[in-house]
Amino acid sequence: MIIFKTHHTLSAHLISLKKREKKIVLVPTMGALHQGHLSLIKQVNDEDAVIVSSIFVNPTQFNDLNDFNKYPTTIERDIFELEKSGVNILFLPSVKEIYPNGTTQKHHFDIGYLEKILEGASRPGHFQGVCQVIERLLQIIQPNILVLGQKDYQQCMVITQLIKIIGKSINVIVCSTIRESDGLAMSSRNLRLSVTDREKAPLIYKTMLQIKEQIIVKNFAEIKVNASNALTTAGFTVDYIEIASAENLQSLQEFKSSNKMVILIAASINGVRLIDNLFV
Question: How many CA atoms lie within 13 A of 27 on its CB side?
C-alpha cells in the first residue's frame, strides 16, 4: 500500500494508472476503522481495480466543535487494517490539502429538500460539509467507482445527488450495514460509548425491528411515539424516528405494499449520537 499526503503526488500516480486502463475505486472514510469500513473494500472484486481509501476527519461537516474534537483517531491501526484488507493507495490529506483556500470560502451545493429533513434538519450545514469534502476527493482522485455504507443512508442519497450536480459519471455502490452480534450498527462513534451505554445501544436496532413488525397493523404516528418513549425511558435522547420512502426519504403516514420503506432513527446517549436505518 502506498500512502500519499498531497494531492499533487497522488494525482500524478493515478494518471499513470489510468493510462494502463486501471479502474479507480474510492472508499472514503474518517478513520477509526471497523469491520463495516473494511467490508466496503471487500466489495471490490475486479482484478483491474485500484482501491484508493482516504482518511480525513472533515471539519466542515461538524456543526458541533466538541463532537469534532472528540472524534476518535486510531491512525496506526487504520493503516495496518487497510493494508491487510488489500487497499492499494491511502490518501492522508491535511485540512490545507482538502481546503487550500480555507474552510470559510465554501461553495454551496443545491441538494434540495435532503438538506432540510432528518440529519439535515438536526445538523445544519452538515451535508454541505459532506458535499464539499466529497467533491474535492472526486476532483483529486477521479474514481470510476465510489463505495459507501448504508448506515449513512441519507448521506448516500446526498452524495448521489452531488454527483449528478457536478456532472460526474461514477458508479455508486451502497453496501449493507455491518452489525455487531447484538445488532448494534458498527460505527466509529461506538468507541466513545461507556460500558453501560454500549450495553444499551443495541436497543436502537431492536426498536427498528419492533417497528417493522408493527408497521402493517398499527398507525405510524402511534408507532413512532411508542418507540420514542421506549428509547427515552432507557436513557436515550431521541432526535428523530421516521418511517419514510426508501426512494426519496419523504415521510410516510401509512403502510402500502407498493412502497419500499426505510425506518430511520437518530438518538444520543450521554452525548454520543448514534444513527441507524432498516429497510422494510
Answer: 26
